[in-house]
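REQUEST ID: PR-0412
SUBMITTED BY: lab tech R.K.
PRIORITY: routine
TASK: structure prediction, single protein chain
INPUT:
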Amino acid sequence: MALDERKGVWKSAPGKGRKTPKGRQLDEQAHAEVCALLEDRSRQRDLLIEHLHLIQDHFGHLSARHLRALAEEMRLSMAEIYEVATFYAHFDVVRETEAPPPALTIRVCDSLSCALAGAESLRAALEEGMDPTEVRVLRAPCMGRCDTAPVLELGHNHIDHATPEKVAAAIAAGDTHARIPDYQTLAQYRAEGGYETLTSLRESGEWEAVQEQVLSSGLRGLGGAGFPSGRKWGFVRANPGPRYLAVNGDEGEPGTFKDRYYLERVPHLFLEGMLIAAWAVEAAQCYIYMRDEYPAVLEILRREIAALEAAGLVAPGHIALRRGAGAYICGEESAMIESIEGKRGLPRHRPPYVAQVGLFGQPTLVHNIETLHWIARICREGPEVLSAHERNGRVGLRSYSVSGRVARPGMYLLEAGSTIADIIAAAGGMAKGHVFKAYQPGGPSSGLLPASMDDIPLDFDTLQPHGSFIGSAAVVVLSDQDRARDAALNMLRFFEDESCGQCTPCRVGCEKAVKLMSAETWNQPLLEELCQAMADASICGLGQAAPNPIRLTMKHFGEEL
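STATUS: complete
OUTPUT:
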């Protein structure tokens, strides 16, 4: 049996066949609308998420008829389109019998820093004060603005230190678009010698010499894993090309905002570092995967990539900017690669590792935004820019994202051996009326440590003996007015929401943990058994690290349980 090309008539024998193929029929108007949006853009498979964003942005949702039209245009099955669209939180799939969402959406962050700042009461006040037919109010995970908690996103406009009054004023003014901060443009960066290092390396540089510089600086991956950055280059180059560079800009670990801090101020330090790394591994193309919660950063990168192309520093299309769609799991490198390829962000089983089989099945170098920022500085200023700094026996600098009960939340560049006492001091001490009780040293994955453990250098390898790790250096400070058990529950609810669902230990384990932790008294033996199963059997770091908040709370704050 065969389908006549583009006619939709099935024939199995002489006579009448089906008048239409099975399944949803193509709506000609919807098809014309989708084609008008796509224009002359490529229909290649890896652009699926980009095309879904086009439809979502234009119509405010993804209707079944538009998904069917996109499937027709991209030559994909409806099942493929639907499974991708429903995987990501920022896509609103609307079936034929359902009403589309209101034109305006408010996403209220409810991760730990915002929860401490009153996000729950803010959301309740907004829900009570808004017309649900005009505005919908949703809870949302961390938006990377923990230093200005509580935060919400009105359309694409982030409102810091949010109040119902600020929201009402923004709605009245139609202020729903991202605000672009002042940042260093290409012309300003080049006036300070920017891209001279890249140009020199392209003309006569040796990648092994640059790799040695990076290694001698002590730079390790600053997305959380901490792998020696320069060593990756040799692993990737050992495999035949074409090779790719993928940049992990999905800064989704609650409490983390260091990458946004740098990109909103000096984006070209990162871009030059990226191009140096791409030169070192002879990457055919660079892919920047940036989280959708950073609309201002996305616009900055669009502008400055275009400026680089216009200046002849990169060939058109050499840098591809890909926009995430609300999935924390895509911070895991293989899940990010799946998403860049236009698929659901499901972590891959390893081996093979992405340095061997990564993007489009080719060897791929993966770096974090801040890592590339430092690569540019190391190549310009020498490895001493990091290696000359020492504290408590630790070498280098760390960008600490600090929020919670401190006087001045913000991003602080300090020596890598700084303790929580040093970090709180840099942030102006505790907030007025608060007494230091506990801290999260590196995002929810690192759990909670008590104030009594205030002399541990917050760096790679120093926290593992205590059942924690530095991760992305997302430091959230708790006070005597907070309960550790509530903070731990907040973290597990985040993991429950963000589990990709691929493996049972993580998918079911996070759900069961939330139920057990919501009880008035924790069943600690059962929770420990659950933690062991999750840590041993989960596919990726999400499920493996999710038990940390539970175990450390039971260990250090048992009186609350």
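NOTES: The chain is about 40% helix and 15% strand.
REVIEWED BY: pending
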